[in-house]
Amino acid sequence: MASPVYRNILIGSTRQEVKDLVGGRVGVGSAYQCYHGDRLTPQRIVEWKPFTKIVTEDGSSDSWMGITTVIYTLEETPNGTHLSSDLGGLEDRPPWVRATLRIMAPIFRRKQTQALADFVDTVTRDFENRHTSFSNEASELSDPQRV
């Protein structure tokens, strides 16, 4: 969830950059710069629990959407790992913004569903490729003719 490459897929942005690293790492206070074309949406990390949860405040007070809290959570289940995302802070918006978001919600849901599927496919493929790569490296290291 911290990798700009994976976040790019998860959010459906055209690119992501990380700013304000904490001790050289992503953490509370760091910010993702999320680009959708030339439009920038800052995403400040306000809660960080590696491998389980990341909470960001997305947007800015001068945009029509204002600031939205986004919560991504990973939970271990008997069948693997469950990724969920929730939005908060929308109840404080003016009525016209809430109405616009309600109208746009089906589009957002479809895009989010596809982004989550793409994210799962990418992470799974990367894991399988790394597992194969590590197995090959281990086989090479244990090959007596290689010594």
Layout of SSEs?
Elements: H1 4-11, E1 15-19, E2 31-36, E3 39-49, E4 53-59, E5 67-77, E6 80-88, H2 95-141
Antiparallel strand pairs: 1-2, 2-3, 3-4, 4-5, 5-6
Helix pairs in contact: 1-2
Keyword list:
single chain, alpha+beta, 6-stranded antiparallel β-sheet, 2 helices, 37% helix, 33% strand, globular
Low-confidence residue ranges? 137-143
Total DSSP helices: 2
> Which strands sit side by side, in order, in the main sheet?
1-2-3-4-5-6
Please give the radius of gyration in angstroms.
19 Å
Strand content: 25-35%
* SSE sequence, one letter per element: HEEEEEEH
Query: pLDDT average, as an integer?
Result: 82
Give the distance, in angstroms, between the N- and C-terminal Cα atoms: 40 Å
What structural class do the secondary elements suggest?
alpha+beta
Number of strands: 6
Question: How would you name the oligomeric state of the polypeptide chains in this document?
Answer: single chain
Give a summary of the structure in a few sentences:
This protein has helices at residues 4-11, 95-141, and strands at 15-19, 31-36, 39-49, 53-59, 67-77, 80-88. It has 147 residues and is of the alpha+beta class. Strand 3 and strand 4 form a beta hairpin.
